[in-house]
Every structure is written in structure tokens, then in C-alpha cells.
Amino acid sequence: MDRSRTGAQLVAAASLCILVLGAPPAVGEALRLQPSSYSCPEGRVPEGARLDAYRSCTFTNLYLWQGRAYYVLSDDKAAAPALGQLGLKFEMWASDEGPEPVTEFFEVTTADALAQRLPAAAAGQAATVPLAYYHFMEEWLPGLSMTLCEQFGHCSYADRSRLQLIDVQQRPRSCNSRELYPAFFREAAGCLSAKPLLHINGSSLRGQLARVEEAWMGLGPRCRGIPAGCYVPGSGRLPPTPQLTASLRLILAQCLGARLDAPAPLRPVQVLVIDRPYTSNRQRRYPPDRVAVRLAYMEGLSVRQQAQLWSGATVVLHMHGAALGNYFFLPSRAVVVQLAPSYRLNPSRYSRLLERDLAGVSDIRVVDWSNSDPTRLHLNTEAITADTRPGPRSYLADRERYAELATSFECSESLRPSLYRACRSLQTQVNLVLDLEVAANLTDAAIAQAFRQQQQAVPAWLAALRAGAGGAAADGRIPPAAAAAAEQERRRIDAVAAGLPLLERLRGAGPLLTLALGVAVGAAATLVVVSAVWRIA
């Protein structure tokens, strides 16, 4: 980009619908409003995409004021552009915005009409800020990065100094318009732009007239993960390419100080277990000179700290959730064990797509395991009682309905939509009591896979360990003797817990190991692993 311009670019990624500025905007300029223009080069539309959806355009001389972007006509007789027909989209999930989302914040006017509206003031209020990644790191950030790289040539970490991201999100995410972004949101956006993230309706811009000489607007057709159409031929949307994925990983590596170019370490093997801050007793399973096992807590960690943890791991054991967004930080040919409290979560739906998109880039492998025994599930009442949202509170007010959820863990489709959504939200707050032998057998198999990933023989000590653990199967199945011991231990713990309040039972009675269902900050639930034969160090 020409550094002599004071330009900006408007792009968007899901809850980040983004204007990007190359230098501070011109403010006021004695109201000498310059006419706006735009172009949407067909050369920017990759083969397989469509001109009418997920298209990026370049605008010149846009004016930002009072939370809106104004396109100024050259005179009263000039034809207004059909902005709603350009195919501009700002949400990774198409269902989250209307058919013409650009009209929600974008307006065509004349210089005289805009001048008559000036000046005005702005305000900012407090709002609840989300703490978990949710789908941001896995789907939204990659979508934004791919648009910037493929459509506008912003493919390197050095380009960040040229950009200013301006969020144009108009939907109910009130924390966005008040610029109350989660820490991980700002930190990740900072990898693409060196300037602070702003909102078009935030206090920094709302009270002044700002001229943007050049703006990039609209998400490109590339997307990844589970938004509709990403991998469907003929949908008009396109999956990532290895080159675009590699570009994102390189930017993140340089931004977050993570080594993503080296293969997963094998001597010693580095096993990372994502845990929650509960007490537990542990004994060592692996020889310390062969395998280093680290339990880590993601709560309160920055994106940089999480990236550095994950980038040094050979094997990661975690529960299904926001941890998926950290797969981009894994070293080459690492192996992940993803656990799910229920097969209904369909964890492989996410992991297979991540394997696909990272193929030829980091070539990770994911082992998925889902619980099929509902008797091992318990609601996380501690988190549920702390939920102050109206929907869940209304659902909990019906004691009979709540009791049914606590025993069946099912949400009846006969519920009215608002209660069904509340029930599904409560479904994510579940504890899983899992025999630790299953988790360890899966970890053993993952370590063996890590050696095979690098064309190295499985070491004799690991083969002997697996053979001596009661003949446990590589897929995590427990032999009869170990299963009987685990069941006996579970019953003993249940007997102890029977006399305790429910919250105390969920905190753990006896030798329990607790793992998180959702990694990153603000995990959604807990995995409680009953230690029957041995415990992970």
C-alpha cells in the first residue's frame, strides 16, 4: 500500500466487521467533503466464488460519523450506487446478518446533506464482555486473515503497521459498539493491525467527522470450520488454501513469539494436559526422562501465553471446546486427543476440518473420543447457579423441568424456542466422570502416533508400558480387570459423596482429576476423571 495515503480499509470477520485505516483519519477539514467512489474488481473473485456474495470492494473518501459510514455523491444529480447489490458481507455466519447488511451502517448522501447534520456527540456504556474464545480463533480470525491476504495482499506481519481495524458490527453484541472487547479479541486483532481496534460507533469515532481516503469493505469468499457452505462445491464460498493457512500461522508465530516452524518434540515427548483449578492427587505414569507431562490452566492466560504453551507440545489432551482455536499454534506433526462428554457434540465434525485445513501446513492429527454412558454425566451446578441470563433463569425456575434435564441431559424439542435455547445452553454445563485409564490409553496411543508422524519407530519403553497396562487397547478400551477396578473405585467415591452437598460432590471427593471441557479463558464445563489404577503426573 502507498504510505502517502491516509487510507483505511473496511473488511469484516464475523463479529469483527472491519474498517482498516492506514493512517489517522482526517477530521473536519473545514467540511470540504470530497466525493466518494468505489470499485469491486472481478479479478478479486477466486474461481468458484460468486459475484453476488462475499465480495470485497475498495472505497475512497468515506466519512465516519455518529456510528455510520457515509458515501458522498459528487452532486445532487449523481446516481447513487446500489450498495445492497454489491455482495458485501460482514459475518462469517451468513444467518447472523440480513440480506443487505451494508445498509445497517452505510448511507449514501450529498456533501450539503451531511454538512447539515454536523456536529454531534458520542457515548459509551458498560456491558458484559465474553471471556471464552468461542469460535473466534477457529473461524472468525482465519476468515479475516484470508480476506486481507487474498483480496488485498496483506499477507505478512510487517503489513500490520499499515492498517487500522474499525469494527462495523451492528447486531446485538453491545460490547463491540462500546469497545469493550475481550482481551483475547484485541490481542488477536493486534496481530493484523498495530493500531488499537476501534468501533465505528465507539467513543473514539462517534463524536467527530473522520474522512477515510481508502477503505476495503466486505469479507472475501474464503471461510473455514462449520459456517454454511465453506466446503460445499457450488455454494459460492470457498475453503482455505494451504498458502493462506500458512500465512496466518506465520503472522501468529511472529506476533505471539511462538515457534511454529519446528516439528513436535520427541526427546522428551511433551504432553500438555489442559486442567481446571481444582485439587487432585497424582502419581507419575511416564518415565520423566522420556515424557514430560505438564498440566496447564488456560484461565487468565493471554493468547501469547497459550500459543507458547501449545507450540511446545507433542501431545495435547483436552476437552471439546474453545481449545480447537489453539490448534493453529501446534507444532508440525503434533497429535491431539479431544474428549467429549457426549457423542451429540460431534467433536470430529470440527477436528476433521482442522486436520484438512492444516494438511500440508502443520499436518497435525486428532484422536476424538466421546462418552456414551449418560450415568457418568452430572450438571455443573456451580456454573449454572452463577448464570444470570434471563433465559437460563426462566428455565431453572421450573423445578420439574430442571430435574428432567439433570437426569436425562436432553432438551425436548417440544419446548418453545426461547426455553429450548436456554436448555441447550445449560447442556454445555456438564461434568463427565471418566475412568482415567481411558484418557491414559488414548494418550499412550497419541504418543505412539507422534513418533509415527515423524517416521520414527515407537520406542521400546512405550511399547512395554502399553503391554504392561493390562493389555489396554490403543483406542482407549479398558480390559475387564481394569474396568472392574474402576467401577469399584467409582462406587466407593459415590458412597462418600452421597452425604455431601451437590456442589461439594462436583468439586470432588476422593482421588479426582479435573479437566476442562472448554480451553482458553472461561471454559464451559469440567471433566472429572476417576483414578482407578494410576494417575497422570
Automatic annotation (TrEMBL):
One of its GO terms (molecular function) is glycosyltransferase activity. Keywords: Membrane, Signal, Transmembrane, Transmembrane helix. InterPro entries: Glyco_transf_61_cat (IPR049625). It comes from the Eukaryota. Residues 1-22 form the signal peptide. Residues 287-337 form the Glycosyltransferase 61 catalytic domain. The chain crosses the membrane at residues 512-534. This is Glycosyltransferase 61 catalytic domain-containing protein. It comes from Chlorella variabilis (Green alga).
